[in-house]
Amino acid sequence: MTWATVLSFIQGVASGAIRSGASIFYAALGEVIVQRAGIVNLGLEGCMLVGACAGFIVASRTGNPYVALLVAAVAGGAFNLVLGLLVITRRANQLASGLTLLFLAYGLTSILGADYVGKRINGLQQLSIPLLVDIPVVGPVLFQGDVLWFTMLPAAGCVWWLLYRTRWGLSLRTVGESRVVAYASGLSPRSLQYQALFIGGLLGGVGGAQLSLSYARVWIEQMTAGRGFIAVALVIFASWHPVRAIAGGLLFGGAIAFQLQLQARNASVSPFLLDMLPYVLTIAVLLIWGRNRQYQMPQGLSSVFEGTD
Amino acid sequence: MAEVMPAAADSLAAPQPLIPGAVDGAVTGWWRSPAGIAVARFVTALVLALIGFAIVLLLQGRNPVDAYTNMFSVTLGTAFGRSEVVVKAIPLMLCALAVALPARVGLVNVGGEGQLYLGAWLASGVALTFTDLSIWVLLPLMLVASIVGGGLWALVPAVLRAKGWLNETISTLLLNYVAVLLVQFFVFGAWKDPKSANFPQSPQFVAAARLPTFGAERIHAGLIFALVAVAVMFFILRQTRWGFEMRAIGGNPEAARRAGIRIGTYIVLALVIGGALAGIAGFGEVSAIQGRLRPEISPGYGFIGFLVSWLAGHNPLLVVVMSLLLGVLTASGDSLQISQHLPFASVNLLMALTLVMVLVLRGRAQEATR
């Protein structure tokens, strides 16, 4: 193996990590907000799927991927409000309600998307920062991508600011620690949880749209393939912190990109075994790091995870 | 949370009647009893779901009346259709029990699909290896293999959860994807039938590896396994100390732990036995229905079983009823595909809408009475 092949392999993994990790990152960022408000949304996978489908349909109809992105975000947010109806208003079990919404999304998107299977769209354009993109090796990886790549850091920063530097964020985190305390101190837990779910849904929808508008540029039934669940797991890995979600997104994007690069180079490992990598890696990462994170968990979540909610 | 306590304590105090509230019903008329209300609520939910699905069909330019007529005449109007409903209900029952048993101790097992695939995979391994055994040896061996496969696949999440390291919901979910990929790895590779050039599938099983069916239809001996499992679980949960202790853990794990109940053992056993039941469902599919291992042995039985268990409130007897109901919907997926040109997965929408409506109507109040 020559130096050039190694370099192009690494470059492929790095830029692939960004492209395939972005969807997981946005979804995880939204889930950070939702979990900070004391809700575990396993329907995130469905929310992404709704975003991916809505985005693709709009892009196909209008030809404008940016309008599509916007619609996808709103669709994701609206979809999450259904979960709110179940778990906030009706106090149904969170994990079961989330999975029910996943099935809802499976069915809904398979019907709505049926006419769009195999269609082609204008995806999000590649943008690059002049001059910086010409830096050898790192330039094309870091300073070239679609709009969703360039907004990753600002998005994480915004969510961090919202959660830690605003009154709203403080209230939201209080609700996540204890609804009772929040209520007693004059906050409205229900309203805040609905708001968290909506914003989380916006980001989940964007994450899904990244798949259909930028990464794959096609619509396939159930194309999220577990990325929503990986994003939920990632929030634990990121210890409920928005900025650390970036590292998580890139790690899992890297795992996906690594196996795709191996497959593209006809490695002698079966593609089916390589496809297992992201899922197995998620479990391994949670085992290694997740255990130490439990004390950082918002108190309101412990009853959900322990099955006593 | 504190507000759960009274209800949980209540459910421990007295053994629950067969259908919650049936005793009171004798006095006031069944429709006013909690059971009558539960039935009314379920029917309302089902009707709302059917209306919701009809609206989606209308928006897609389909005629919902045609669609429903076709769905229900194909599945319920003919003897073959009705037998196919039972065929679908067999794996649904087993996969629902795989959810219901762990749910008793407060666990959410979403790994039924993966456990089914692992059961099918190991049973197929036995069938493809020992081709010259008699049916009396081979079938029991395959059954044991499927139990081991499904059980082992649940053992990993069970141990991690019992140790307090990793939540079982996340691990069982992720392992589903791994299980399907494992089966694909084998049917595209080592076990691929050389005679089927383009189809990834194992060679046909020998006759001794095929579960017998009743008469000409496809209803197979797996039905007996499923019904026995329902009966045994019903008995254990209601009549034994194990069932009582499991309810105690599900109601309040901390109190149960202080009362000296070995929570870890129950967590592992409930998940592993659940996984084994889903594994048996996989055995039934490869042995009786397919006669070989293929990647698409299940249209999501593990996931639909999850919906069944929640619809049934994790009650083993209601699992039978709900399995038949969702069996009708699963079987009618084909009808939607053929007569309405809708993807098979669209039937998921109808199933999920039903559970959404049930959860909306039932809310918190009924969850403690499981």
What's the structural blueprint in terms of helices and strands?
The complex is a heterodimer of chains A (309) and B (370).
Chain A: H1 3-36, H2 44-62, H3 65-89, H4 94-112, E1 127-128, H5 138-142, E2 144-145, H6 147-150, H7 152-165, H8 167-177, H9 179-184, H10 189-215, H11 227-237, H12 244-264, H13 271-275, H14 277-293, H15 299-305
Antiparallel strand pairs in A: 1-2
Helix pairs in contact in A: 1-7, 1-10, 1-11, 1-12, 2-3, 2-4, 2-10, 2-11, 3-4, 3-10, 7-8, 8-10, 11-12, 11-14, 12-14
Chain B: H1 5-13, H2 22-28, H3 34-59, H4 64-76, H5 79-104, H6 112-129, H7 135-162, H8 168-188, H9 222-239, H10 241-251, H11 253-258, H12 263-290, H13 301-311, H14 316-340, H15 347-362
Short description:
Chain A has helices spanning 3-36, 44-62, 65-89, 94-112, 138-142, 147-150, 152-165, 167-177, 179-184, 189-215, 227-237, 244-264, 271-275, 277-293, 299-305, and strands at 127-128, 144-145. By secondary structure, chain A is mainly alpha-helical. Chain B is globular and about 60 Å long.
Structural description of this entry:
The complex is a heterodimer of chains A (309) and B (370). Chain A has 309 residues and is mainly alpha-helical. Chain A has a single domain, classed as ABC transporter involved in vitamin B12 uptake, BtuC (Orthogonal Bundle), CATH 1.10.3470. Helices cover 73% and strands 1% of the residues of chain A. Chain A has helices at residues 3-36, 44-62, 65-89, 94-112, 138-142, 147-150, 152-165, 167-177, 179-184, 189-215, 227-237, 244-264, 271-275, 277-293, 299-305, and strands spanning 127-128, 144-145. Chain A has a two-stranded antiparallel sheet with strand order 1-2. In chain A, helix 1 runs parallel beside helix 7, helix 1 (3-36) crosses helix 11 and helix 2 (44-62) runs antiparallel to helix 3 (65-89). The longest helix of chain A is centred in the N-terminal third of the chain and has 34 residues, at 3-36. The radius of gyration of chain A is 19 Å and the shape is globular. The termini of chain A are far apart. The radius of gyration of chain B is 21 Å and the shape is globular. In chain B, 51% of the residues are buried. Chain B contains 15 helices and no strands. Chain B has helices spanning 5-13, 22-28, 34-59, 64-76, 79-104, 112-129, 135-162, 168-188, 222-239, 241-251, 253-258, 263-290, 301-311, 316-340, 347-362. Chain B is mainly alpha-helical and 370 residues long. Chain B has one domain: Orthogonal Bundle (ABC transporter involved in vitamin B12 uptake, BtuC). Classes of the chains: A mainly alpha (309), B mainly alpha (370). At the A-B interface, helix 3, helix 4, helix 11, helix 13 and helix 14 of A face helix 8, helix 13 and helix 15 of B.
